[in-house]
Amino acid sequence: xxxxxxxxxxxxxxxxxxxxxxxxxxxxxxxxxxxxxxxxxxxxxxxxxxxxxxxxxxxxxxxxxxxxxxxxxxxxxxxxxxxxxxxxxxxxxxxxxxxxxxxxxxxxxxxxxxxxxxxxxxxxxxxxxxxxxxxxxxxxxxxxxxxxxxxxxxxxxxxxxxxxxxxxxxxxxxxxxxxxxxxxxxxxxxxxxxxxxxxxxxxxxxxxxxxxxxxxxxxxxxxxxxxxxxxxxxxxxxxxxxxxxxxxxxxxxxxxxxxxxxx
DNA sequence: ATGGCAGTTCCTAACTGA
Length: 263
Prior knowledge:
This protein has 263 residues and is of the alpha+beta class. The protein contains 8 helices and 14 strands. The chain has one domain (2-262): Deoxyribonuclease I, Chain A, CATH 3.60.10.10. The protein is 27% helix and 25% strand. α5 (123-145) links the parallel β7 and β8 (149-155). The chain starts with a strand and ends with a strand. It binds one DNA strand of 18 nucleotides through residues 9-10, 13, 35, 37, 61-63, 116-118, 124, 155, 157, 174-176, 209, 211-214, 216, 223, 225, 252, 254-255.
């Protein structure tokens, strides 16, 4: 099975590129999208349903929004944190549409759009750190509830190691690389999740996001912030994990490009 | 770096993103 993650930065703007990518990648079983930026009633479902995908979406106006496209129907679709951690813990977080998950072939796919955090010390930064705490509770409960394999993927807005950044100098003061953000993500991973990209690609120089500004992509000044984290058995079974640079080369691209795991 | 790019809406200005 192949599971891809792609922050498309607006599904309506990127619709034709996503269709083209799915046609070029017919072996992808599940595509997790982030930053769809559209309410559910306006999501362009038809073109993807015509390609025989089952769609599971959770969007809001202008910001955020996640979706899962699957070749086969998924089961136990959960939207937001609340169905797993309860309303009290999820209350401040589910207004932003950043979490959707579903089960396929006994593997629970969790699709995340982690908050950006804006700037270190800002309210949004504190929100991001708290969000990771709720995520940890959410994933721990998921594992407790049904000890199936987990594939937690999406836009994490954190580069965990210096080698995930083109020029890490001074980046500890930069959102996405600050020590507190890295610790918050590492704390989530202690429940038993591993970065599968690093199983196959131990070296630096691999990125999934490039700033639109300053010709970031042309100069390969990127960050690796889109990840797949797997539970141990699934990690051991994994066959490959690759970043597809092609969509980033197109006219009017998303600032992110897809990452695909096979297990 | 008041920077710069791109997307959205309360749409030609202001916001959010990363």
